[in-house]
Design goal:
With 1116 residues, the chain is α+β, with helices and mostly antiparallel strands. 35% of the residues lie in helices and 18% in strands. It folds into six domains: 31-140 and 741-812, 3-Layer(aba) Sandwich (Rossmann fold), CATH 3.40.50.620; 282-474, Valyl/Leucyl/Isoleucyl-tRNA synthetase, editing domain (Isoleucyl-tRNA Synthetase, domain 2); 561-723, Endonuclease, Chain A, CATH 3.40.960.10; 816-889, no CATH class; 907-1021, Isoleucyl-tRNA Synthetase, Domain 1 (Orthogonal Bundle); 1056-1115, Ubiquitin-like (UB roll). The protein is built from 40 helices and 40 strands. It is globular and about 115 Å long. It binds one RNA strand of 85 nucleotides through helix 10, strand 11, helix 13, strand 15 and helix 14.
RNA sequence: GCGGGUGUGGUGAAAUUGGUAGACACGCUAGACUUAGGAUCUAGUGCUGCGAGGCUUGGGGGUUCGAGUCCCUCCACCCGCACCA
């Protein structure tokens, strides 16, 4: 009975599927453990042996935790939106949805082939509408949220507008625009569109502008690193900077929290360090310099604000440097310098970000001709521009302190700017003194102070003068959230007259079809880019332009148009051009309104009697349908609605409904004011004067708005009324979301993957909580990991989940590199073996690793590899072999060094493959793949198999009682394996298994008492063979559900120790002593030892060191 | 330029708190068994030396009875970068 791995593995894979062994329930009776791999992008190339490294590690850990009694969630899915599928589609004319489907199928086969314990019922795919529905939904939550700096939490926009109504934005400064300051009165006077503009500056998902590289020839937007020397990397086409409206996530508001809570995470220090660097918190000061010359009269631009982390060096300022993109540059540049500055600005525009960053030694810049006044010395300071100052960091301007900053120093030297020394002897003129030791000199009232003290003193003086203030700066920037691509999540956003609305906002919700999530990605035949840098979706005009309303609504509107009040399809009367457009959503609104008019309440009757017939100078209608509601009284001329509420103030439910109604009506553009029955009854005069006041504060829309195009009031129109032949104004957003959208929250979806009502139920997220162990590569250090942390915090703040960090522990796996093989090629088809290559004049050529065994080339296969090599001739070594050379490189198809795990599994089995991947070395280290080494692991499994079954005799396991030696081996192994798995040292676990099997083989052990626990121990590593042995041992249920063997100290306790005995720390011999032997006795025996005596030559040692249980050292 | 990481036999590596450096494998050498060996088993294998021994964890220095491990310094390689003021 030999180890027939392929048969064994086939059988158990089928058994696991048939019996749903890996099905995971949300079972609250067991402790949970959530272990997750960073899900793969299913590329067309399939998995290579590098991909599963982390998956094997997490699978081992998952199986181990399950053996230890945990309910383990260990899911897998696919990050299936992305650029490669789209590019493939462009080239091959295959729809991304099709290729993605095919690729995922292949990936799943490959993954299953390796024997992972995934519950595929929980699989998620980011490109699945059932999944991205919730990505869009979360986007909407972010859109409807802002960051409350007082409570340090993401909050709903409703709360923000309540604050604005109450007190303006004094207590909640605008994160995007510190010049945006307004009072409650200002707020109430704004139009809805203006208010929306303000709110946009607060939203967590917001629209702004960003410069992107646009390449006309390629028709796409390029990433920074795709632009080299001002042309596209691919094809060398010209590129230009283009300012484009883009979505952003306001991650900067979370900077401090993202930084602070890193301390609570069990991540590697380098990983945390990378995030800290990315967030880049720095304490410093803002300093204002008044522009002296070359400045326009306008006081607003009379000063330039710089940010510095070294306010203590303020007296060392010899010049200011603005980013060439700084908005002041054009205004302050003197006529004399204009040509030079323009030329320089043009030069910088041609430079890619990468180049500006990488070429440190290249010093460029231009003098603006302007001078600024030093706030403390009042002396003039020249203002320069240079590409080394970035517009996007700090204030986009710095103060140049050449004696204290190396870059400033180089700049001053290069342009011959005189340098002020503020460090005394520490600065010698050769290079800047940037150490923070010593004292500041030559600096007025700061002279003699240490750096820290001087910084404080400088800031407080500047504050007193009103010339500066303390400031904490983060280098983290808001995350660009739009891509001009097809294969990504569409935004649930519709533009009405250019104003973006979420699909769950009033004007859109009127149409059930438009407001429905998901906004499905339309099927297209062409993936070419749209014009003007837009994404491919812009080409699908049928989809972009919202032209065909849902049929029933449309039909109904036509037949009822005479009753539709302000609404008629052909209603082009100018009277309505300034009035908010709206639609009556519910058919029976008209009947209800008519009925209501006949049945006024007492309060309503009183109000009506006082406002009817232009009594307040404006015409009111009563019981008028608006959108889905019926307004009590409405003045269309002033877009004012009066509500008389019976229950508003004492019924919470009613209050909620009414607030929603107010919100919707105000979104459309009406102002809603409400009064109680009681107010009308007892304080009618106050009510009427409040109405009068409201009327007088609002513009008259009937005539003024039409005539006065500069009016503050802008029309907010409902998309529904605007639709009609040729009259479309509503468009869908044509950008799609970036790759990290779907991956920012996928870990939550696994908890409750098939939920159609929520992204995940609160019960599920409360049970599974954070990911206990997250396994993936370091390449996601600052992208994915930072974004998902932000999303988690936002979802937590908004009350959707109960934890604010996604990944408790992080394990970074290293890369498996490829090992490329080269043959030495002379001419076209003559090849020379490596040993003789030096005698020939040729070049190395990559050959596929499959053609090579170790370093020995299979010459026949090379001839068949490619047609042009069919007549190849070979100069071999003396023994007839042809040798290649090897080089470690990235594993990639183009380097012919990709090894497919399927091939390895076919040849050696999945168990061997899994163990070998682990045996290669520590999980977090990168290492090259070498198929040769796998033999050792395969031999080990065969050797282990022979403990249980003999090739000739068959099953050999006995019920004999184990010996002490056998028990010691077993328990030593239990301890080692358990400890190793806990600390993710899987390579040493594999070694230990080898040692154990070697020792048991030597002892000829075939005892069930030893071999049954061994089968369980190895199950996480080699599940197939473990399952086979477990069943052969008589069990009828899966080994997956067994219990991890319990380590017992008593079996491994020894009472003697073989000590290394060293002379001066150099081991010379070994001697065995009882562990409880007294030192005197040991000393006597050691010094009497023949070998030791040879070294001591009979002399008494200077020192005798005895560390119990460790070693003995004799110092002579 | 900045930040992070890694340097141990021919190769992958081990040494968990400062305590026998090179476990466990690959490869290689020799042998056994065999029709065969790309199966299996046995022995050997850091370098050097006949040997006693000497040398050896990227180089140099230090702390210690004792250093791969701690400290200083230099070097090489890999990864990332948004010149971060």
């Amino acid at each position: 009975m030999e180890y027939n791995f392929s048969e064994i593995e086939q059988n158990w894979k089928k058994y696991w599927i048939d019996n749903k062994v890996y099905k995971v329930e949300n079972d609250t009776s067991k402790p949970k453990y959530y272990i997750l791999d960073m899900f793969p992008y299913p590329s067309g190339d399939g998995l290579h042996v590098g991909h599963p490294l982390g998956y094997v590690a997490s699978d081992i850990y998952a199986r181990y935790k399950r053996l230890c009694g945990y309910n383990v969630l260990h899911p897998m899915g696919f990050d299936s939106f992305g650029l490669p599928a789209e590019q493939y589609a462009l080239e091959k004319k295959l729809h991304p949805a099709v290729t993605t489907e095919v690729n995922i199928k292949r990936y799943k086969e490959q993954l299953d082939n390796i024997g992972f314990c995934y519950d595929w019922d929980r699989e998620v795919r980011t490109s699945d509408p059932n999944y991205y529905k919730w990505t869009q939904w979360i986007f909407l939550q972010l859109f409807h949220s802002w960051y409350n700096r007082k409570t340090d939490k993401a909050c709903k926009i409703d709360e923000l507008t309540a604050i604005f109504e109450e007190e303006g934005n004094q207590s909640q400064p605008c994160p995007a625009d510190d010049k945006c300051i307004f009072t409650a009165q200002d707020w109430s006077n704004m139009s809805v569109t203006e208010q929306r503009g303000i709110i946009m500056k607060y939203r967590l998902a917001y629209q702004g502008y960003a410069q992107v590289w646009w390449c006309e020839a390629l028709g796409t937007v390029l990433a920074n690193d795709e632009v080299v020397n001002g042309v596209s990397e691919r094809g060398g086409h010209p590129v230009e900077r283009k300012n484009m409206r883009q979505w952003f996530l306001r991650i900067t508001e979370f900077a401090e929290r993202l930084l602070a809570s890193l301390d609570t995470l069990d991540w590697s220090e380098p990983m945390k360090e990378m995030q800290r660097n990315w967030i880049g918190k720095s304490n410093g000061a803002e300093v204002k310099f008044q522009i002296l010359t070359g400045a326009p009269a306008d006081a607003d631009v009379h000063q330039v604000t710089v940010f510095t982390t070294r306010p203590d060096t303020i007296f060392g300022v010899d010049f200011l440097v603005l980013a060439p993109e700084h908005s002041l540059v054009a205004q302050i540049t003197s006529d004399a310098q204009k040509a030079e500055v323009d030329k320089y600005v043009q030069y910088v525009k041609s430079r890619s970000e990468r180049e500006r960053q990488a070429e440190v030694k290249l010093i460029t810049g231009a003098f603006t001709g302007a001078y600024a006044m030093h706030p403390l010395t009042n002396s003039p300071v020249p203002v320069w521009i240079s590409e080394y100052v970035l517009a996007s960091y700090g204030t986009g301007a710095i103060m140049g302190v050449p004696s204290g900053d190396e870059r400033d120093h180089r700049f001053a030297k290069h342009f011959n700017i005189p340098i002020t020394n503020i460090f005394g002897d520490s600065y010698t003129g050769g290079e800047a003194y940037s150490d923070k030791a010593g004292t500041i000199q030559n600096s007025g009232f700061l002279s003699g102070l240490s750096v820290a003290t001087a910084a404080e003193a400088a800031i407080s003086t500047l504050e007193k003068l009103g010339a500066g203030s303390r400031r904490i700066n983060y280098r983290l920037r808001d995350a660009g959230f739009s891509r001009q691509r097809y294969w990504g999540e569409p935004f649930p956003i519709i533009y009405i007259d250019g104003v973006p609305y979420a699909t769950d906002e009033a004007p859109i919700t009127a149409d059930a079809t438009l407001s429905k999530l998901p906004v499905e990605l339309p099927w297209v035949e062409s993936y070419g880019p749209g014009s003007e840098g837009q994404g491919p979706l812009a080409n699908i005009t049928d989809w972009v332009n919202v032209t065909s309303p849902p049929a029933p609504l449309h039909e109904w509107r036509g037949e009822q148009s005479s009753n539709a009040g302000a609404l008629a399809d052909n209603d082009h009367r100018p009277i309505y051009s300034g009035i908010p457009r709206y639609i009556i959503k519910v058919r029976h609104s008209f009947e209800s309104a008519r009925t209501n008019r006949r049945n006024l309440t007492e309060s309503e009757a009183i109000v009506w009697a006082n406002i009817r017939g232009n009594k307040l100078g404006a015409k009111f209608r009563r019981q008028h349908p608006i959108d889905a509601y019926i307004a009590d009284f409405i003045c269309l001329q002033k877009a004012l609605i009066i509500e008389i509420d019976g229950e508003y103030h004492d019924n919470e439910e009613q209050q909620k409904l009414d607030n929603e109604r107010t919100r919707v009506l105000e979104e459309i553009g009406f102002k809603v004011i409400r009064f109680t029955n009681e107010q009308v009854g007892k304080q009618l005069n106050e009510v009427l004067s409040a109405i009068r006041k409201e009327l007088s504060s609002r513009p008259n829309l009937l005539t003024d708005a039409v005539a006065d195009s500069d009016s503050e009031f802008h029309v907010t129109s409902s998309p529904l009324v605007e639709r009609g032949p040729g009259g479309e104004v509503a468009q869908r957003e044509t950008n799609t979301m970036p790759g990290y959208a779907g991956s920012s929250w996928y870990f939550l979806r696994y908890m409750d993957p098939n939920n159609t009502a929520e992204f995940a139920s609160r019960g599920a997220t409360d049970y599974w909580q954070q990911v206990d162990l997250y396994v993936g590569g370091t390449e996601h250090a600052v992208g994915h990991l930072l974004y998902s942390r932000m999303w988690t915090k936002a979802l937590c703040d908004l009350g959707f989940i109960g934890f604010d960090e996604p990944f408790k522990k992080l394990l970074n796996q290293g890369m498996i590199q490829g090992s490329s093989r080269f043959v030495y090629r002379v001419g076209t088809d003559k090849f020379v073996s490596a040993g003789l290559a030096k005698d020939y004049d040729g070049v190395p050529m990559r050959v596929h690793v499959d053609l090579v065994d170790g370093l020995e080339l299979d010459m026949e296969r090379l001839k068949n590899w490619r047609p042009e090599l069919a007549n190849a001739t070979f100069v071999t070594e003396a023994d007839g072999r042809f040798l290649c050379t090897a080089e470690v490189e990235k594993m990639s198809k183009s380097k012919y060094n990709v090894v497919n795990p399927d091939d390895i599994v076919a040849k050696y089995g999945a168990d061997t493959f899994r163990m070998y991947e682990m045996f290669l070395g520590p999980i977090e280290m990168s290492k090259p793949w070498d198929t040769k080494g796998i033999e050792g692991v395969h031999r080990f499994l065969k050797k282990m198999w022979r403990l249980y079954a003999d090739e000739q005799v068959g099953w050999v396991v006995t019920d004999d009682a184990p010996t002490d030696a056998e028990l010691r081996i077993l328990h030593k192994t239990i301890k080692k394996i358990g400890e190793d798995i806990e600390r993710f040292s899987f390579n040493t676990s594999v070694s230990q298994f080898m040692i154990t099997v070697n020792e048991l083989s030597t002892l000829g052990c075939h005892k069930k008492a030893i071999l049954a626990p061994l089968a369980v121990l190895i199950c996480p590593f080699a599940p197939h063979i473990a399952e086979e042995l477990w069943h052969k041992l008589g069990h009828t249920t899966s080994v997956v559900g067994a219990a991890f063997p319990v380590f017992e100290q008593k079996y491994v306790t020894e009472n003697t120790k073989v000590y290394p005995v060293a002379i001066n720390g150099k081991t010379r011999c070994e001697m065995e002593f009882a562990l409880d032997a007294p030192q005197a006795e040991i000393e006597k025996e050691v010094l009497g030892n023949e070998i030791i005596m040879k070294w001591t030559e009979g002399n008494a040692p200077k020192k005798f060191i005895y560390i119990k249980g460790k070693m003995i050292n004799v110092v002579i």
